[in-house]
Amino acid sequence: MSRYEVDGVDIQTLPKVSLHDHLDGGLRPQTVLELADEIGLELPASDADALGAWFAAQSNSGSLPEYLKTFDITTAVMQTEHGLHRVAKEFVLDLAEDGVVYGEIRWAPEQHLQRGLSLDQAVEAVQAGIEEAIDLVESHGRGIRVGQLISAMRHLDRADEIAELALRHRDKGAVGFDIAGPEAGFPPSRLASAFDRLARAHFPATVHAGEGDGLASIEDALFAGRALRLGHGTRIAEDIEVEQERDDAIVVRLGELAEWVKDRQIPLELSPSSNLQTGTIAQWGDSLEDHPIDLLLQLGFAVTVNPDNRLQSGTTLTRELGLMVEAFEWDLDDLEEVTQNAVAGAFCSLEEREELADEIADGFDDLR
């Protein structure tokens, strides 16, 4: 049983949907140790607990660029077919243990070619690991559906190539496209030709925006990137004005961009712990209670809750939801709402989303 409960229910037992989960941010510390030993990579710690603590400490920098440096180690041990297969397999098993019934795993294949793999071989290795894990989960009487989000690094120059890679694998595990990496100075419009190609092929995209940069980043993601979801999108709250008036009445005014995102129910892939670590919410405060996620949910935005990087944040989706219960007194209905928001934004067919929505509703009802 996890330590996180809501209305007397163990949150780990609730069916969940994870839309923003990085493969290279979700390795088990013991796996990092063993894979590093295989390739002779020196690590900053020699046991799993100490290594996990090192990742957590390094990630609490308050800076997205500094946070991203921790991935130098995780990507280094994911340069072979064996390494990618193992990490992907364990990742899916960890999703299932977390109560996730549908997950999208994002990662950037271009970062995994240092030991001779081609882009396609890398994607195939990850897919093989995913499928082996799905079979294992099903052999234990449970079910999980998992797709790959193929990411291009926004500050490099391979987006067109990575878009084509995603399209080659669209019927073999790839369900969507993403761009990741430092936001400031690298807007989605810089990669316009890749997004044009994807749009013509009717292939969905989510874009990291509103994390390391502000409203301009979000606007560019929506219009140049044709983003169907916003990777984080936290800083859409910059376009919301909250005023305290007489008799404690609260007046909230939304700017045009915030209205657009809310009215069209564009899912926000919010990751509370990560947003705190990277300084994304620094303008509002320095604790989870200062995160605008609760305000956004109460205003009717399509809020979803995600782990982002399980290793760096020392977290799970169970924990992230539990933290929201502790910080904002969310109840079971709130957790079901954000989970159904994630279902609505999932990159799968309408029929699959309807089936998944029923599964989530039944799962919550069974635990009430």
UniProtKB/TrEMBL annotation:
Enzyme class: hydrolase
One MF annotation (Gene Ontology) recorded for this entry: adenosine deaminase activity
Gene Ontology biological-process annotations: adenosine catabolic process; hypoxanthine salvage; inosine biosynthetic process
EC code(s) of this entry: 3.5.4.4
Keyword entries, A-Z: Hydrolase, Metal-binding, Zinc
The keyword Disulfide bond belongs to this UniProt entry's keyword annotation: no
Domain Adenosine deaminase: residue ranges: 15-362
Cofactor(s) needed: Zn(2+)
GO cellular component terms given for this protein: cytosol
KW Zinc (keyword) present: yes
Superkingdom of the organism of origin: Bacteria
Family: Belongs to the metallo-dependent hydrolases superfamily. Adenosine and AMP deaminases family.
NCBIfam families, sorted: aden_deam, PRK09358.1-2
PANTHER family assigned to the protein according to its UniProt record, in alphabetical order: ADENOSINE DEAMINASE
Listed name of the protein: adenosine deaminase
